[in-house]
Amino acid sequence: MGLRNETVAFSLDASAVPEAVSASALAASWRRCCERMRAELGEDIFNSWFGRLDLESVAGGHARLSVPTRFLKSWIDTHYLGHITTALAAEFGALARIHVVVRSSVVAEAAPVAWSAAKPAEPAGAERPAPAARRAPAQSAAQAAADALVGSPLDRRLTFATFQVGRSNQLAFTAAQRVAENACGRASSFCPLFLHSAVGLGKTHLLQAVAQTAAAQGRSAIYLTAEKFMYGFVAALQAQTAIAFKERLRAIDLLIFDDAQFLQGKTIQAEFGHALNALLDAGREVIVAADRPPNDLEALDERVRSRLGVGLCVEIGALDEALRVKILEARIAAARTMQPNFEVSPAVLGFVARSIRSNGRDLEGAVNRLLAHATLTGAPLTVEAAEAAIRDLIRAHEPKRVKIEDIQKLVATHYSVSRADILSSRRTAVVVKPRQVAMFLAKTLTMRSLPEIGRRFGGRDHTTVLHAVRKIEALAQTDGALREEIDLLKRMLQD
Fold first, then answer.
1. 333: which of 175, 300, 402, 420 lies 20 to 30 Å off by Cα?
2. At what angle do helices 480-494 and 462-478 cross, to 10 degrees?
3. How many helices and strands, by DSSP H and E, does the chain display?
């Protein structure tokens, strides 16, 4: 009894076998080992992969460590066992074996486990137990592949019904719905569908909505993050079931792949590319999401980028104020199911929507803070109280201070004119529009007064600046292309 085949072993030639180490000495030695690995690998990597790794015992030339999950064990075994071996050797000398076990799979035993470098003698005439592989029925390759290719978990709240639609995400929403509802057995004309955006703007929500809709229709679909795919493929290689893994992946009707920017490793990327080609050539549906367009995923194999780029590529833009209000109203309604007395006035709602412009996750965090304030203090939720409650979110996303010179340079580059042209007295159409757009952005993104802006634009009168601002505001109401240009310039200046 005990480890249920969860042990990973790493062998060394040991000239000396350390004796058992006491608990206090073991803890002190492990702290020193951790400090060595933290200094060698860096704080982020150490916290990600070693924070939940415990050293349980060192005895008889064997070290035993434990982790809480199989994935963590597999990753440490594949990538960091050498670092652990070096750190332990510095403390305890050469070790014959290092065992990494999964804590959840360890079964308590009445007697302590003995870790010995020498094989214990067997009593004469004792019957040797059959190896585990012969005692237990062998797992089929198909079953092992099925275990490796398990989709990432779905959040039941992330459906099309709960997705808030606005101008910035309308096309992505419609395209995702089309993929989800396409049960005819043929891929849509824009397959593969590629969605990209900054964090917190709804990519994962749409992908999980597609997965849940397809599952409700009884379609063969799987939702995978890049991390889950990498883990599954490595597990299949270790279990020697890679062929069955590949065949099962190619047999699905709909592949939904999230966080493509995290896909790493030449072998893993090549396998993803082969699976992608096989699915698309067979007329299956594929939807992929990342934080940037395919051509900007420099770490991704060029052939994979090329194949992802042949379909429909949709960017989910920044949330406008109207959409932020809709998201806040939905979050508040959800919070009210747990706290019926939770009320947010229109003034507070508008303040939060204007103050937090980054992404939907921060808006959800703001609602949680407002709910905590209302619940714990019992005080009225005024604008001043709301400002205090979400101050950290506002400060974390304060817009970058924009300079008028930066505006002039960017606008000049965007419209293919020179900064000198914008500051000049020329009144041709090719110069007037960029100049007015630059004045509008200077008024919108800086705290400068109209007279100051006029002086920075070649000594113009403040009325000229006011005329430019009003004209661009009016045109942006009716000219969608101009509105998109201005939004793009704003994002470029504030990033």
1. 175
2. 120
3. 23, 9
Q: 129 and 72 in contact (C-beta within 8 Å)?
A: no
Question: Residue for token digits 């639609």?
Answer: 165
Confirm whether 116 is domain-assigned: no
Residues 48-73: tens digit of each pLDDT = 778 888 898 888 888 889 987 776 78
Give one word for 146, left, alpha or beta, with left for phi > 0 and alpha for psi -120 to 50.
alpha
Q: What pTM was computed for the model?
A: 0.53
Residue 256's identity, in one-letter code, is I
Question: What distance in Å separates the CA atoms of residue 442 and residue 408, rounded to the nearest whole number?
Answer: 9
Task: Note whether 183 and 269 are same-domain residues.
Answer: yes
Q: Which domain holds residue 202?
A: 170-315
Q: What is the CATH number of the domain that holds 79?
A: 3.30.300.180
Q: Tell me if 99 sits within 8 A of 117, measured CB to CB.
A: no
Residue at a domain's end among 315, 349, 382:
315
The region that residue 194 occupies, defined by phi over 0 for left and psi between -120 and 50 for alpha, beta otherwise, is: beta
CB 353 within 8 A of CB 325: yes
Q: Is residue 130 domain-resident? A: no
Provide the CA 322 distance to its chain's centre, in angstroms: 26
For residues 301 and 298, give the distance between their C-alpha atoms in angstroms, rounded to a whole number: 8
Q: Is residue 480 part of a domain?
A: yes
- The region that residue 378 occupies, defined by phi over 0 for left and psi between -120 and 50 for alpha, beta otherwise, is left
Query: Could you give phi then psi for residue 184, rounded to 5 degrees?
Result: -85, -5
For 124-134, what is the mean pLDDT? 39
- Residues 204-246: tens digit of each pLDDT: 999 999 999 988 888 888 898 888 888 888 888 888 888 888 8
Q: Domain total for the chain?
A: 4
Picking from 396, 425, 444, the residue at the C-terminal end of a domain is 396
